[in-house]
Design brief:
Length: about 475
């Protein structure tokens, strides 16, 4: 029997409480740190949004047009308000894009923003972008460009500067913050919750206990093992996301000692027991890979997977050819709330490397220090992860992970040439062939070594429905419903 609107209203809870281990470093949407991802789509809007097939749909931009040569895109903005009450204008879009382009404030998008060579306001509701190339990944990029109130970003450490479905309410640093429904939101009729409370619970066991006790409704950041232990618990379900795979990788700083030697790095690459890591560390919720994109992605080339398979005999042979002996390295890992599974992965890698005569020391850092060392390339080896980033590889190439400005400090002109070619055509067949060659170069260079692709698992009460992840793995919560 269909439920009437009044009955539905009485059965629907207006509040959602979720827990995550990492605290936001600020409310700045240009920073995609783990603790920040929860508020991105809640506080902020984007010009366009992507569906599961990669087709763009209107966001703050209600329409757009491309020029015949593909190098100019003109966006028409809808009527919308920031949380400050001021109208969203083309000047705010220009300000936002320029802020992402500034390496001091937009490091998470970095090189990817360089394809936008110009942005200007034609009138208060019209924005024109000019591009250096056809930019096949443009709408993937725009999915991660969160439009900001140019007059409010000065206080972004303690408040938001967005136009999204929720605004910042009560904020207790290190404890919790609340996201409150924005009553003047341009599509407020689609927002089902009145309040979202985000509790910061760094300890996974404590977070799981809070879920079982009914103190929280959803765990946003959790390991595969915790999710597996919660599966089947009365009143709890585990949602297995089928979008935005997370790629866990090992990175080598190629300016550090023996890591400058390509054959030595290849020996490490062949010492990674990817299947054991997938089975043990990620409880079977991951699959081995040595490519930057998952097997479901059109750019993935299955034939290349054998070129990085676990083979200690091949690793020992590469080590002998490298001329390196008696090497001792340190690998940076982090707490699970920031880099899930990195410490456990390091233990498995340590045992494998010991069999070919390489000593690995493991250090584990809290989020703030781990991020600082990551951004500064202050490591021998580093275990971390990234989300695949939607439907187009241009979103992650080049970036701080792959490319001439990557944190591995490795330079490969042939790689750069292939990436430029792939980013300069909209022909999918040509791009697929080019990305196969790019994957080949990544395997050969062995400065960044993908290990496994994992899919997010979110434990939640059975009463919670409608959780969505965007193409970058950022949660979209406006459509979530909670029944009493």
């Amino acid at each position: 029997m269909a439920m009437g609107s009044s009955a539905w209203a009485s059965a629907r809870a207006a509040d959602l409480t979720l827990a995550q281990g990492a605290e936001p470093i600020s409310f700045d949407p240009t920073q995609f740190a783990t603790g920040n991802q929860v508020f991105l789509h809640q506080f902020y809007d984007t010009l366009t949004t992507l569906d599961r097939t990669g087709v763009p749909h209107p966001g703050l931009a209600q329409s757009w047009e491309r020029s015949a040569d593909g190098l100019t895109v003109t966006f028409k903005l809808r009527d919308a308000k920031f949380h400050s009450g001021r109208e969203v204008t083309a000047d705010d879009v220009v300000f936002t894009i320029q802020r992402y382009q500034d390496p001091k404030t937009g490091a998470n998008l970095g090189e990817r923003m360089s394809t936008i060579t110009g942005v200007k306001a034609l009138d208060p509701k019209t924005v024109e972008l000019t591009l250096s190339s056809p930019t096949p990944g443009l709408f993937d990029l725009l999915e991660a460009v969160f439009i900001q109130d140019k007059d409010a970003v000065g206080n972004i450490a303690t408040t938001d500067a967005g136009s999204g479905p929720f605004r910042l309410g009560d904020f207790q640093p290190g404890v919790s913050f609340k996201m409150v429904r924005f009553t003047d939101y341009w599509q407020n009729d689609q927002t089902k919750l009145d309040n979202i409370t985000v509790r910061i619970i760094p300890d996974e066991g404590a977070a799981a206990a809070a879920l079982q006790a009914g103190e929280v409704d959803l765990l946003l950041q959790t390991s595969a093992l915790t999710a597996k232990n919660l599966e089947g618990v009365n009143g709890i379900k585990v949602w297995h996301a089928d979008t935005a795979p997370v790629t866990y990788y090992l990175m080598a700083n190629t300016t550090h000692g023996p890591l400058a030697n390509q054959l030595f790095r290849q020996a490490i690459e062949r010492s990674i027991d990817r299947q054991t890591i997938a089975d043990v560390v990620y409880s079977g919720a991951a699959v081995p890979t040595c490519q930057p994109w998952a097997a479901s992605h059109w750019a993935h080339d299955a034939k290349l997977e054998t070129e990085c398979s676990y083979d200690l005999a091949a690793a020992a042979d590469l080590l002998a050819k490298s001329g390196v002996s008696g090497a001792t390295l340190t690998v940076n890992t982090a707490v699970d709330s920031y880099s899930a599974g990195s410490s456990a992965t390091a233990q498995i890698l340590k045992e494998s490397l010991a069999q070919i005569g390489v000593t690995l020391n493991i250090v584990t850092y809290e989020q703030a220090q781990a991020r600082k060392l990551l951004l500064a390339s202050d490591f021998d080896l580093l275990l971390h992860s990234y989300t695949e980033g939607g439907n187009d590889p241009q979103f992650i190439m080049p970036s701080g992970i792959y490319g001439p400005k990557g944190r591995s400090k490795y330079s490969d002109p042939k790689y750069d040439e292939l990436v430029a070619a792939a980013n300069d055509t909209l022909d999918v067949d040509k791009r697929k062939a080019l990305y196969s060659q790019i994957s080949q170069r990544i395997i050969e260079n062995a400065d960044v070594m993908p290990i496994v692709d994992g899919f997010r698992e979110l434990p939640m009460k059975t009463s919670v429905d409608g959780v969505v992840l965007d193409v970058s793995g950022f949660p979209v919560l406006a459509g979530v419903s909670v029944t009493k």
